[in-house]
Write a structure and sequence with these properties.
Blueprint: E1 2-5, H1 13-22, E2 26-31, H2 37-42, E3 46-49, H3 55-62, E4 67-70, H4 84-102, E5 106-110, H5 125-135, E6 141-147, E7 149-150, H6 158-164, E8 167-169, E9 176-180, H7 182-192, E10 200-205, E11 208-211, H8 212-222, E12 230-232, H9 235-244, H10 249-264, H11 269-273, H12 284-295
Parallel strand pairs: 1-2, 1-4, 2-3, 4-5, 5-6, 6-10, 7-9, 8-12
Antiparallel strand pairs: 9-11
Length: 296
């Protein structure tokens, strides 16, 4: 199959490219950085250098594809002028236009847990907006992949652990958290992107389920701090900390609302109604080794 991937060689697209090439597919990887071309080609894939902000470039690249994997690249949360919703809607409309014009009939899109919510999910509302735009595409089979919390988000706690010897946020503690490895997401996408589909499908992807306290204990043991604790702090305190660190205030508010929805269970309620049949292979104890290397 001819499969076009967005996401360059990021956390998900790198293992996804490797797996699809290994399985004999003709893989084209879109990247905005020309220096990535040699790395992409070294994997046995073809590079398409251009911007996802350019709908004409996307249309040209998507032509002849049997399937396309789309994702919204992250923006700069510390840019005070960054409008995350406008950014995401623009890219979603670009994808929609290119998919239609290029005649693509199979799409797998990276969304997020919580995208079932119409309000109260904070930053996840942009994933809902993107799903709504793509959902209007006629005659295209679309799978919305909804991964849970990424392991690598835990790296954001490294400075706090080093400074105060603890983890603190407005979620976690004794509440159950659902974690996922990008490698497991890539495996799920690799399977789904070659699976025929008419209509729409939602797939949740997860690797491990642990409370915040269990998460802290496993990470603590890996870094030589077996008594590491996870403290839950008020929403306003969490937001003030993010703003003090330089985060765009609107994005900080959206992030805190997202974590609050996780803490009260609304963010994960649809996951528990439609959980994955099998959890991924990469467990938190596996990731903890990587975390320990980063912590040094």
């Amino acid at each position: 199959m001819k499969i076009v991937l967005t996401g360059s060689l990021g956390h998900i697209s790198l293992p996804l490219t490797k797996e699809l090439v290994q399985k004999g597919h003709n893989v084209i990887v879109i990247s905005s950085k020309a220096e990535r071309q040699k790395d992409i080609e070294a994997l046995g894939a073809k590079a398409a250098i251009g911007q996802v902000e350019d709908a004409d470039f996307l249309t040209f690249t998507f032509k002849g594809a049997d399937a396309v994997y789309t994702m919204i690249p992250p923006g700069n949360y510390f840019n005070s002028d960054f409008d995350i919703m406008a950014h995401c809607k623009k890219l979603a409309n670009n994808f929609s236009q290119a998919i239609q014009k290029a005649g693509v009939k199979r799409v797998v899109h990276l969304s997020s847990i919580g995208a079932h919510m119409e309000k109260g999910s904070g930053l996840i509302l942009f994933h809902r907006a993107v799903e709504d735009i793509l959902d209007k595409l006629p005659g295209v089979g679309i799978t919305f992949m909804r991964p849970v919390g990424f392991y690598y988000n835990l790296y954001s706690f490294v400075p706090l652990i080093k400074r105060d010897g603890l983890i603190a946020s407005n979620f976690g503690g004794d509440k159950m958290l659902i974690w996922v490895s990008p490698v497991d997401i890539a495996s799920a996408i690799a399977e789904e992107v070659v699976t025929p589909l008419s209509g729409r499908k939602v797939i949740y992807v997860a690797s491990d389920l642990l409370t915040g306290n269990e998460t802290a204990r496993i990470l603590g043991e890996a870094i030589g701090k077996p008594d590491l604790k996870w403290f839950v702090i008020p929403d306003e305190q969490a937001k003030a900390g993010l703003i003090a660190a330089g985060m765009n205030p609107k994005i900080a508010a959206g992030m805190v609302e997202m974590y609050s929805a996780q803490q009260n269970g609304s963010l994960t309620e649809d996951y528990y109604l439609h959980p994955p049949k099998v959890l991924g292979k990469v467990k938190l104890k596996d990731f903890a080794k990587e975390f320990a290397n980063a912590f040094k």
